[in-house]
Prior knowledge:
Helix content is 84%, strand content 0%. By secondary structure, it is mostly helical.
Amino acid sequence: xxxxxxxxxxxxxxxxxxxxxxxxxxxxxxxxxxxxxxxxxxxxxxxxxxxxxxxxxxxxxxxxxxxxxxxxxxxxxxxxxxxxxxxxxxxxxxxxxxxxxxxxxxxxxxxxxxxxxxxxxxxxxxxxxxxxxxxxxxxx
Length: 140
């Protein structure tokens, strides 16, 4: 029950990314705050701060890697909206967010090969995969 606002925000972000190929800053912030508040109310402030700290580390590593990629290759890789979404997911569940991100990138690559496209939005792949991981994890 504590996580309903997070799920609403993150699925809304996936819909917007599908339509407009962007993840608005306001929605990304709402997702991160909802995830932090949900973890705080469910597992306590120490766990929420641990998750937020790990999310910051993952986010900074991804942004620095993307910045280096753009500087060396002179071409965009993943978008910053994807990094913001990963931050929110890692605030909710750090390990689940990283695993979902890796699986989503592989799924996205396969989908691009199938439809013969150079790029597709990541969030429509990332959010359902993360939801499946969280659902399976909560039932075990």
